[in-house]
Amino acid sequence: MTTDELVYYYRPMPKSADCSDSIAPQPNRFQDDVNSVFVIAMLRSAGTVTIISRSNAPTTFQLAAGIHYHGTSDVQGQAQPESPQSGSA
């Protein structure tokens, strides 16, 4: 790794949202996804990664250098993981 990076995924709509499109049904296996934010942090040195969601308090992880996978549960609305930095983010 030559730079610190974050890769994240979250469901843009709650799992319980109804499909408003009368032409097509909900996609196959829609029920298998959860209302969470998942983050892969790739860090060159130890640091802090914070996941912020509009509906929940921030979740902070103190991480060593390396590649880490973390998630938060029951997240709704837009998520914004903060960039990792040595010491804090």
Please explain how this structure is put together.
The protein is mainly beta. The chain has one domain. The protein is built from no helices and seven strands. The chain has strands at residues 5-10, 37-43, 47-53, 56-63, 66-72, 79-81, 85-86. The strands form two sheets. Strands 3, 4, 6 and 7 form a four-stranded antiparallel β-sheet that branches. It has a three-stranded antiparallel β-sheet with strand order 1-2-5, with no helix packed on it. The protein is elongated and about 50 Å long.
* Residue share in helix: under 10%
State the secondary-structure class.
mainly beta
Count of discrete structural domains: 1
What is the first-to-last residue Cα distance?
19 Å
Low-confidence stretches: none
Please compute the radius of gyration using only Cα atoms.
15 Å
Summary, kept brief:
The protein is 0% helix and 45% strand. With 89 residues, it is mainly β.
Keywords:
elongated; glucan endo-1,3-alpha-glucosidase activity; 0% helix; mainly beta; Glyco_hydro_71; 89 residues
Secondary structure layout:
Elements: E1 5-10, E2 37-43, E3 47-53, E4 56-63, E5 66-72, E6 79-81, E7 85-86
Antiparallel strand pairs: 1-2, 2-5, 3-4, 3-6, 3-7
InterPro entries: Glyco_hydro_71
GO molecular function, one term: glucan endo-1,3-alpha-glucosidase activity
